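Q: Predict the bound structure with S-adenosylmethionine.
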Amino acid sequence: MTNKDYQSAKKSLGQHFLRDHNAIQRITHAIPKGANVIEIGPGPGAITESLLERVNSLAVIEMDDRFAAHWQGVAEQNNKLSVIHGDVMQDLDAAVTSVQPEWIAGNLPYNLSGPLTAMLASYNLSGGMVLMYQREVAERIAAGPGSKTYGGLSVLVRHFYDVKRLLTLPPGAFSPPPKVHSAVILLTPHGNTPACAYWQLQKTVRQGFAHRRKTIANNFRGSITAEQFESIDIDPRKRPEQLGYEHWGKITNQLLG
Ligand code: SAM
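A: Predicted complex:
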């Protein structure tokens, strides 16, 4: 890729390209050699090139015409690589079904963080995920119960995964530099049986965190009584951010009757 590509970064596609060699190494080395991987948003390829050297197969999903065309050219010469030219929000489900990746990686477009993470957390991968976010979003995802930043995404990612912060990066690690710091999180499968179906958990969490300052009795008024909360060993006076994954699983099952 040329300097021109970096200079013409599209804000609308959240393009901040990673330039920090050490970070590229840390991200790619979190994925074992020989894995089958999907990368979201390869852009000019900071992570992609390093991944291609390690993996058995790599499918990239890229919306930007310039980068998709570039990687299609590379794929003609390298049969490890396949390219999906499209919108990750539309095409990821089909890609996961056909590629059956062990790992997903990406320096994610900031504007998609929430909905994309909710989608990613629904996939039960055998390897895991290495994902870069704005630091504030990474903190929300990695937060545990009791923390002010703990929320719906923190619960959802724990359905299948343990969460670890891998590294934090200053704006200068990117070109063009974003306004905020970034952070990379590592999701690895915990292997426990999930408490309920993912899409049902998603509904529960949406309702339960609708009013963070209210008690869960209030957030679930009309759906779960105080006695029913007590029958599943949950204090109805608690606030949503005080409940761990297991509690959310129990509430989901209670809602199902
Ligand atoms: N991986 C590169 C890196 O680390 O330098 C680029 C990361 S940049 C933050 C995000 C990338 O996602 C860009 O290449 C952008 O074009 C792509 N992108 C943005 N929105 C997308 C979407 N809806 N579907 C697929 N790719 C998208």
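A: Residues 3-189 form a domain with the Rossmann fold fold (CATH 3.40.50.150).
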